[in-house]
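Summarise what follows for lecture notes:
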Amino acid sequence: MIKKLPFQIAAILGLALLSYAGQAQQNALDFDNVDDQVTVANASATIANSTNMSISMWVYPANTNITFPDFDGFAGFRNNVDADFYLIHYTPTGVEARFRNSAGVATDVIFTSLAINTWQHFVFTYNGTILTLYRNGVSVGSAPATGTIASATQTFYMGNLPYQGTNFFLNGKLDEVSLWNKALSAQEAACIYNNHIDASDANLKLYYKFNQGVVNGNNATVNTLQNTVAGYPGSLINFAKTGTTSNFVPGVIKGTIDSASICQGQSITFGALNITTSGNYVQAFPTASICDSIVELKVTVASLNLSVQQNATTLTSAQAGATYQWLNCGTGNSPINNAVQQAYAPTATGTYSVVVTFNNCSDTSTCINFTAAGIEELNTLSASVFPNPFNAQLEIKFAKTYPTAEINITDISGKLVYTEKLISEKSTIISTSDWKAGCYFVEIVSTEGILREKVVKQK
């Protein structure tokens, strides 16, 4: 069996693999601006009394008519008293990033160039003295701040931020939402934007990838949003969980996309994966920062059809569009000179096989027993098929009138291209103008005999 050599993608990339593997699934969550939200109870315990915290997310805002009370909450904590750390869409192109400490002192960083109907990435950090907002890996504002959030019982919201009894439900999509018990640096914010988060970082407390369910499918049984790190699942509230809105939808795709083709029965090593089936696979490779370089590999397994069709005069490989070499199994699988077409007509009784090469993959069929019949055994019907080779038509004439005669014509792959039943007729003309150039096999059967003949249509 001849196949392409296996290879290792990780070695080609020159990267070391993290403990992250699986088939690719880059989902997001769509929020309907009516009542959809995700809540994580008591999540403020993860950053309580800390002077270092960060929140990051991909957001796709879709509200083109922002006005109170239809503000759109992205994600974060908000009790409007002593525990705020959030991002909200509050003017047509404005984002408010707010930190409110346990003393009730609120500090805002305002961004005024939000893009609507576009995926963009935000990181909001606090290091005990400075708040900084990053958009798409670049700092877009900062402000001095002090204090901590002391409460350990605040809910972390996604797709909503309540305000004095009013809910600011999101019109848009979220993906890759995270909360950290550290202040991310400018380098780290840029790294997360360009790659993906390293889930092994000890300061990462919440990390929701949204890679659940079936995109635009029926996800009625999915009731919680998985936290990639331990604990704190998110509760999915009021989502329709079916269709293209209020449901899991296509998400942000980051990283390198590559492709590879392997032969059936072969495997390919991609990091920790040993891949044998077609599909999209994702691996994460560490960088110098807190993020992973994500590589998606699209694998196609090229399969060969090794079956062989046979009639009384010809063997035909079922794999079209390949290259062929017919072998004589009785003489040690020796190649047969000039037998390199899809069809082969043996001149002697024996066993034969064919080597098929297609999409850079090669394999050999099983040996087929073939009995070579003499022309006098096959052609017991007196008729002629002409011209041969032919172009626009074929004509069949009988030496005498037969009560019935059935005509079947197949192409080189064995597909029936023409059939006709004649009753007491001495000839027929068949239009072949739309037939492809190549070999065809004519079989005529009557109660008095049979005729089989190979004909060729010219280009």
Q: What stands out?
A: The first strand starts at residue 21 and ends at 23. The first helix runs from residue 9 to 13. The helical segments are 9-13, 186-194, 375-378. Residues 224 and 235 are 5 Å apart (CA to CA).
